[in-house]
Amino acid sequence: MSFDSLDEFCTCGYRSSSMEKGEINRLCRQVSIESPNLLKGDCVYNAIVPVGNCPPKGARILVVYAGACYRRARETSNSSIGSLNQEQLCREMSDISFTAAALAQMQSAGSYGRENSLSQTSPQNCGYRDAALFPGFEVAGVIESLGSELKSTCGFTVGQRVCLYPYDGVPAGYSEIFVVPDLRYLIPIPDNLELSVAAMLPTGALLAMSSILSAHKIIDNLHKKSKDANKPVKLLIVGTGGLALWTLRIAAQHFYTKDSKDKVEITVASLRDEGLEMAKHEFENINFVQWSEDLYEKQLIERTLDSCNGLVDIVIDFGTTSRSLHRSLQCLNDGGVVLISEETAEKLLPKFSRKAEERKQHIEPVPLGTIEQLHEVVRLVANNEITPPPHTVFPAEQAAEVIRKLVHSEIPGRAILKFHDIE
Predict the structure, then answer these.
(1) Other Cβ atoms within 10 Å of 404 Cβ, number
(2) pLDDT digit string, tens, across residues 385-412
(3) Angle, helix 297-308 to helix 322-330, in steps of 10 degrees
């Protein structure tokens, strides 16, 4: 679906009810979501923020859906926030799955809301409005305007459905409109793919795809070196929520083919259910183990080894903590490989590199993924070759309630905020 002009675009309802025609170039609504903290009261803030001009060779996007993204968790003080620019702040935002788990533990321990708990910052206190818990790197919407220097042959039109590749410096997506400097970061969305599903692809699904492709190279090398051609490679996926579900689905699509279904054994370890119970019925050949944090570490490792029938060859670990990586190494064969995200590697590699080397194990960072890989993910999901994990759409006005439900693990799969009703 596309439109010939902004006027036609607006008359078809593609406009926030809070903005009058002509103001779209100046102001828009933004939702800022902080780490929940009982001492601070509300953790969701609404603001009116300026919208930048459309770049000559870029575009402005009307955000329709924004999904929780996967970013490392790090405490940030009021003083440190004041010293960061917007790009740096976006990089400091939390992984919603990890944060929800931490908050649940804090509540059960009675520490939820204390002065030293999780985050002490507030837009009202630090003077920075967009101290968001999830900055909205996963967004899907429609093109509101195109740059003045672009020709009709640029490949995009006003009103076209797109999602955004999370390039360095990507703006926060919990705004109604944001500016994209280059069209190469826009991924067209086919008409048969729901925009709410498309909003889950640019970070969660893309990182899952990148990880599985990295694992595939290692698996091929292991098969070449193996003296037993029929011996399967054991793969352990560690994660929570939507990211684990995406990785599970992409792994099944990738490895459980006619030629390779007996060559890879997959086990999924998760801190919480979050839809994994439903996935058990979809994938009969995949093992599942729950990493209940109320068990001793030795018990968790024994439980995992039982599910995997011994030590594994590869671990894809989406955990962001030392404890998770330490546990993964304990479940890994000598000479095995743990794949972790580049952001997690920056934090944990200095601590674990020597230990892994002593055991002849390897810890390899996995990049988020390329623009080409995101195009491929969109194609596979649109063609029903990969089934997306469950997700629930909430109006952006209910952001505070969404946070409450995420903290209590009441939302299976992913939570998506909706800004505009265009479908």
Answers:
(1) 13
(2) 999 988 899 998 887 788 778 777 788 7
(3) 50
Distance in angstroms (rounded) separating the CA atoms of residues 180 and 190: 20
- pLDDT tens by residue, 108-166: 443 333 333 333 333 333 333 333 444 567 889 999 999 999 999 999 999 999 999 98
Phi and psi torsions of 40, nearest 5°: -90, -10
> CA 201 to CA 65: how far, in whole Å?
12
Torsion angles phi and psi, residue 255, rounded to 5 = -105, -30
Distance from C-alpha of 301 to C-alpha of 312, rounded to nearest angstrom? 12
Report the alpha-carbon distance of residue 84 to residue 44 in Å, rounded: 21
The residue assigned the tokens 């979050």 is 274
User: From the CB of residue 395, how many other CB atoms can be counted at a distance below 10 Å?
Assistant: 12
Q: What sign does the CA torsion over 363, 368, 373, 376 have?
A: positive
Q: Residue 210 in contact with residue 290, Cβ under 8 Å? A: no
Helix (H, G, I), strand (E, B) or coil at 278: helix
Which amino acid is located at 413 in the chain? G
**Residue pair 235/219 in contact by the 8 Å Cβ criterion:** yes
Complete edge-to-edge strand list for the sheet that includes strand 233-238? 287-290, 264-270, 233-238, 312-317, 332-341, 362-366
Return d(Cα 294, Cα 306) in angstroms, integer.
Answer: 18
> Which tokens is 147 given?
């740059």
Element (H, E) at 339: strand 332-341
Structure token digits, residue 358: 């002593």
Which residues touch 244 (CB under 8 Å, ≥6 apart)?
237, 238, 268, 270, 274, 276, 318
24-42 tens-digit pLDDT: 446 777 776 665 554 455 6
Tokens of 39: 């001492």
Q: What is the radius of gyration, based on Cα positions, of the chain?
A: 22
Handedness of CA 342, 381, 400, 411 (dihedral sign): negative
For residue 64, with 0-12 CB atoms within 10 Å meaning exposed, 13-18 middle and 19 or more buried, which class applies?
buried
Kindly compute the dihedral angle of the four CA atoms of residues 314, 319, 320, 322, in this order, to the nearest 10 degrees.
Answer: -70
- What is the DSSP secondary structure assignment for residue 57, as one 8-state letter? T
Q: Which amino acid is at 353?
A: S
Tokens standing for 91? 């990089």
Q: Exposed/middle/buried for 93, CB within 10 Å: 0-12, 13-18, 19+?
A: buried
